[in-house]
Amino acid sequence: MELKPLKIGDLTARIPIIQGGMGVGVSLSRLAGNVAACGGVGIISTAQIGYREEGFESNPIESNLRAIANEIKKARQIAKDGIVGVNIMVATKRYAEYVKAAVKSGVDLIISGAGLPTMLPELVKDSKTKIAPIVSTIKSASVILKMWERKSGRLPDLVVIEGPRAGGHLGFSLDQLENFTPEVYEEEIKGIIGVVKGYAKKYETHIPVVVAGGIYTRADIDHALKLGADGVQMGTRFVTTFECDASDEYKQTYLNASKEDIAIVKSPVGMPGRAIINDFMEHPKPGIGINGKCLKCLERCNPATIPYCITRALINAAKGNTEDALLFCGDNAYRADKLEHVKDIMDELTK
Ligand SMILES: Cc1cc2nc3c(=O)[nH]c(=O)nc-3n(C[C@H](O)[C@H](O)[C@H](O)COP(=O)(O)O)c2cc1C
């Protein structure tokens, strides 16, 4: 199938590939900037984005807000006139401040999931920043579109459908993960596209939809387009790049992984996620972070009851201590056997 540019409001990405936001420290300015420079859309994850900033331990939120501005600026320098966005999880403590910081830095696009971004239209009002919810089911798509229409008369500029094969936290219950086989989930994708098309028709416009989760090759992209998508969002494929912002040791865990090493895990905040299983996952060390200071990352986390601190386990991964780490990944993470350049991946996918 022919790849058509992806139009997000008045922005156009030459290549309809969005590199998904990956936290902590996996997609920062270097990865996002390079994907954008190649004609795709580069997304910086704001999840504990300030972990390398001075003063992070004593004031994580201030460090994160400062880093949002820095990373967007650095990504733009690499991206030139490419599209740079951020991924802000709804579950983030003081979410509104993160959104405002990104808007103030003139970010092109905010993609928001891990909860329903009900407040997002209000928070970006009077700015040029485009907004996109991440949805996983027909139900969540219907709820968020209806709510945005009713509360603020706003349509999404883009909708991201994230399926059960994705990496990081997943928007499904364990039962749903079992029942949504790839074939069954395709019907859900078509249903979500139908819901979005209904709103687009009502307002005589087009709302682009991208599909995420398990997209790795050009054949996967073509398949998503055949289902009616305008493009794709990819995470795992971009982790094993030279430009990915995570440590080499983290990338190496992907290169070493076999299919059997990848499993659904329960994150400390109760949500299911997908990760490479290491000793730490089998025997989490409660000492990781719990005896230390809370870094105020997620709304729903109660430091008194969690088995380990998710922020510290993800920062360990990003920094290269992969033994005491949560190694988030998509279900394709076993496929890479070498590091690649972003440009070579983009060339391969657009050939
Ligand atoms: C290491 C890793 C971290 C991720 N972190 C986030 C995140 O912080 N917020 C989010 O909304 N999605 C996150 N994701 C999901 C990606 O943005 C993307 O949608 C998904 O991985 C697509 O599936 P794929 O990895 O099979 O291509 C993460 C994915 C990975 C692999």
Explain what the structure shows:
With 351 residues, the chain is α/β, with parallel strands linked by helices. It has 2 domains: 254 residues, Aldolase class I (TIM Barrel); 88 residues, no CATH class. 38% of the residues lie in helices and 16% in strands. The chain contains 14 helices and 14 strands. The strands form 3 sheets. It has an 8-stranded parallel beta barrel, surrounded by 5 helices. Strand 10, helix 8 and strand 11 form a beta-alpha-beta unit. Helix 1 runs parallel beside helix 2. The longest helix is centred in the middle third of the chain and has 21 residues. The radius of gyration is 19 Å and the shape is globular. It starts with 5 loop residues before the first strand and ends with a helix. The chain binds flavin mononucleotide. The site of flavin mononucleotide has 31 residues, from strand 11 and helix 9. Flavin mononucleotide (FMN) binds next to strand 11 and helix 9. This is Probable nitronate monooxygenase. It holds the Pfam family NMO. InterPro entries: Aldolase_TIM, NMO. Keywords: Flavoprotein, FMN, Monooxygenase, Oxidoreductase. GO terms for molecular function: nitronate monooxygenase activity.
Task: Summarize the entry for a quick read.
The chain is of the alpha/beta class and 351 residues long. Helices cover 38% and strands 16% of the residues.
Could you say which overall geometry the principal axes of the C-alpha atoms support?
Answer: globular
Find the CATH superfamily of the largest domain: Aldolase class I
Give the helix level as a range of percent: 25-40%
Briefly, what CATH class of the largest domain? Alpha Beta
* Bound small molecules, deduplicated: flavin mononucleotide
